[in-house]
């Protein structure tokens, strides 16, 4: 039995019962972060804030949304947007956060690639992050279906149809996923369950896993310097704060993060109030109609690059499907496709730097052409960019990094 004494305050009361002081030390005041990092390392916390906003705004939307193919469209476009007080605000926050979170996820991923933060002990952090990316993609896709507009319906029809490419059992899988021969009420209700129940729980668990996996290897820093965290923390605790290369997560590091989050929030609420339309497709303001196929079907901007990889192999639907499947999982393999163990910023790794920007350029081209109709020259540019993507990942990256290793590291 614990030795319970009269507490001198709430903290002490909790500490006697739950060891809360130790917990705060482990999680906050004695969790060490390198000093040498810039604002790009705040993106993880920005993501956490955006996810919280999605969660809270989602709860408000859930009070009025009707997961029924006959009622869903009106419940969003009339009830929430026009009848419920401030319903429009919660919807705009939800839609803008859903789009902006992908901007920040891509920045967070590419910062990690730029600084080599996915290797030499940080592989599990990377894999946890990639799992978050995949589950967030499923969350966004299932959410996009819920307003039951034209694009919700037809994007769902196209994407669920992709399972038809699985040999032998493809047609049965499509029917199983849809719960019907076509996208219908049963499809809406199962995607609703995924969106509001199963996937958010998985995301919460993965965020906890991602944070836990940061504890042992610690976050990287701008120079990729391997720090002796024990020694540096001793210096800090011995009041040699200037000499120490680390700071505690709370209150020092988090105060910097809160500054970045605050600046970001100004930008975010500017979008919510004045430019929310960028996150909503005009075609989705027409109710779903299974007899009227839109002229041109495309997914949200964050899926366009992989959608273009699917369409890029226009001469073979099977090849397109295989390339699309690879595009979804290839980044999981990054720590092993990179054959060098140099952890340094790309600007100190000449050939890697060229590879990095070539990859960004290729992904931008894929995104732009993913939105254009696949006609004439567009088809060939899309094809070249898709082959380019596979080349950059499977051939160029191993070659560049093997060369780097043979040359003995950073030149
Ligand atoms: C909602 C999703 C995510 C959240 C809340 C999140 C949160 C965080 C936080 C707070 C950090 C520590 C500070 C920082 O570097 O920003 C971090 C680090 C990291 N994250 Fe994420 N992350 C998410 C998604 C991802 C994704 C999609 C990837 C990549 C596939 C990823 C890969 C990494 C890596 C490699 C690090 C270590 C960075 C370093 O050592 O410098 N994360 N994440």
From TrEMBL:
<dbReference type="GO" id="GO:0016020">
    <property type="term" value="C:membrane"/>
</dbReference>
<feature type="transmembrane region" description="Helical">
    <location>
        <begin position="124"/>
        <end position="146"/>
    </location>
</feature>
<dbReference type="InterPro" id="IPR005797">
    <property type="entry name" value="Cyt_b/b6_N"/>
</dbReference>
<dbReference type="GO" id="GO:0009055">
    <property type="term" value="F:electron transfer activity"/>
</dbReference>
<dbReference type="Pfam" id="PF00033">
    <property type="entry name" value="Cytochrome_B"/>
</dbReference>
<keyword id="KW-0813">Transport</keyword>
<dbReference type="InterPro" id="IPR048259">
    <property type="entry name" value="Cytochrome_b_N_euk/bac"/>
</dbReference>
<feature type="transmembrane region" description="Helical">
    <location>
        <begin position="153"/>
        <end position="171"/>
    </location>
</feature>
<keyword id="KW-1133">Transmembrane helix</keyword>
<keyword id="KW-0479">Metal-binding</keyword>
<feature type="transmembrane region" description="Helical">
    <location>
        <begin position="313"/>
        <end position="334"/>
    </location>
</feature>
<keyword id="KW-0349">Heme</keyword>
<feature type="transmembrane region" description="Helical">
    <location>
        <begin position="191"/>
        <end position="212"/>
    </location>
</feature>
<feature type="domain" description="Cytochrome b/b6 N-terminal region profile">
    <location>
        <begin position="10"/>
        <end position="223"/>
    </location>
</feature>
<keyword id="KW-0679">Respiratory chain</keyword>
<feature type="transmembrane region" description="Helical">
    <location>
        <begin position="378"/>
        <end position="403"/>
    </location>
</feature>
<protein>
    <submittedName>
        <fullName>Cytochrome b</fullName>
    </submittedName>
</protein>
<feature type="transmembrane region" description="Helical">
    <location>
        <begin position="39"/>
        <end position="65"/>
    </location>
</feature>
<feature type="transmembrane region" description="Helical">
    <location>
        <begin position="249"/>
        <end position="272"/>
    </location>
</feature>
<keyword id="KW-0472">Membrane</keyword>
<keyword id="KW-0408">Iron</keyword>
<dbReference type="GO" id="GO:0022904">
    <property type="term" value="P:respiratory electron transport chain"/>
</dbReference>
<dbReference type="InterPro" id="IPR027387">
    <property type="entry name" value="Cytb/b6-like_sf"/>
</dbReference>
<dbReference type="GO" id="GO:0016491">
    <property type="term" value="F:oxidoreductase activity"/>
</dbReference>
<dbReference type="InterPro" id="IPR016174">
    <property type="entry name" value="Di-haem_cyt_TM"/>
</dbReference>
<feature type="transmembrane region" description="Helical">
    <location>
        <begin position="354"/>
        <end position="372"/>
    </location>
</feature>
<feature type="domain" description="Cytochrome b/b6 C-terminal region profile">
    <location>
        <begin position="239"/>
        <end position="411"/>
    </location>
</feature>
<feature type="transmembrane region" description="Helical">
    <location>
        <begin position="95"/>
        <end position="118"/>
    </location>
</feature>
<dbReference type="GO" id="GO:0046872">
    <property type="term" value="F:metal ion binding"/>
</dbReference>
<keyword id="KW-0249">Electron transport</keyword>
<dbReference type="Pfam" id="PF00032">
    <property type="entry name" value="Cytochrom_B_C"/>
</dbReference>
<keyword id="KW-0812">Transmembrane</keyword>
<dbReference type="InterPro" id="IPR036150">
    <property type="entry name" value="Cyt_b/b6_C_sf"/>
</dbReference>
<dbReference type="InterPro" id="IPR005798">
    <property type="entry name" value="Cyt_b/b6_C"/>
</dbReference>
């Amino acid at each position: 039995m614990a030795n319970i004494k009269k507490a001198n305050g709430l903290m002490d009361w909790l500490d006697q019962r739950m060891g809360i002081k130790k917990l705060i030390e482990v999680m906050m005041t004695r969790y060490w972060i390198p000093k040498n990092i810039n604002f790009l390392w705040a993106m993880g916390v920005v993501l956490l804030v955006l996810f919280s906003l999605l969660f809270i705004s989602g709860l408000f939307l859930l009070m009025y949304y009707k997961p029924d193919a006959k009622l869903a469209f009106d419940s969003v476009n009339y009830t929430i947007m026009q009848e419920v007080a401030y319903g429009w605000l919660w919807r705009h926050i939800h839609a803008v956060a859903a789009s902006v979170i992908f901007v920040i996820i891509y920045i967070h991923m590419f910062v990690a690639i730029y600084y080599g933060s996915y290797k030499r002990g940080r592989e599990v952090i990377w894999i946890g992050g990639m799992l978050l990316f995949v589950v967030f993609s499923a969350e966004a896709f299932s959410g996009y279906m819920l307003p039951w507009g034209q694009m919700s319906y037809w994007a769902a029809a196209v994407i669920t149809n992709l399972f038809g490419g699985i040999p032998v059992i493809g047609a049965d899988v499509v029917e199983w996923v849809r719960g019907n021969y076509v996208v219908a009420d049963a499809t809406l209700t199962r995607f609703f369950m995924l969106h509001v129940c199963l996937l958010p729980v998985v995301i919460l668990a993965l965020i906890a896993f991602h944070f836990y996996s940061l504890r042992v290897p610690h976050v990287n820093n701008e120079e990729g310097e391997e720090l002796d965290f024990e020694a540096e923390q001793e210096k800090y605790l011995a009041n040699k704060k200037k000499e120490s290369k680390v700071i505690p997560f709370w209150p020092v590091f988090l105060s910097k993060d809160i500054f970045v989050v605050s600046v970001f929030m100004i930008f975010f609420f500017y979008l919510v109030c004045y430019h929310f339309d960028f996150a909503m497709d005009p075609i989705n303001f027409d109710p779903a109609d299974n007899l009227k196929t839109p002229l041109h079907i495309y997914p949200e901007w964050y899926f366009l690059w992989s959608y273009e990889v699917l369409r890029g192999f226009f001469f073979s639907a099977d090849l397109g499907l295989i390339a699309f499947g690879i595009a979804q999982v290839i980044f999981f393999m990054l720590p092993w496709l990179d054959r060098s163990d140099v952890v340094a910023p790309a600007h100190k790794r000449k050939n890697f730097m060229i590879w990095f920007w070539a990859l960004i350029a290729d992904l931008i081209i894929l995104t732009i052409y993913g939105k254009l109709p696949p006609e004439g020259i567009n088809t060939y540019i899309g094809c070249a960019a898709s082959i380019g993507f596979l080349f950059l990942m499977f051939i160029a990256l191993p070659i560049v990094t093997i060369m780097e290793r043979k040359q003995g590291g950073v030149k």
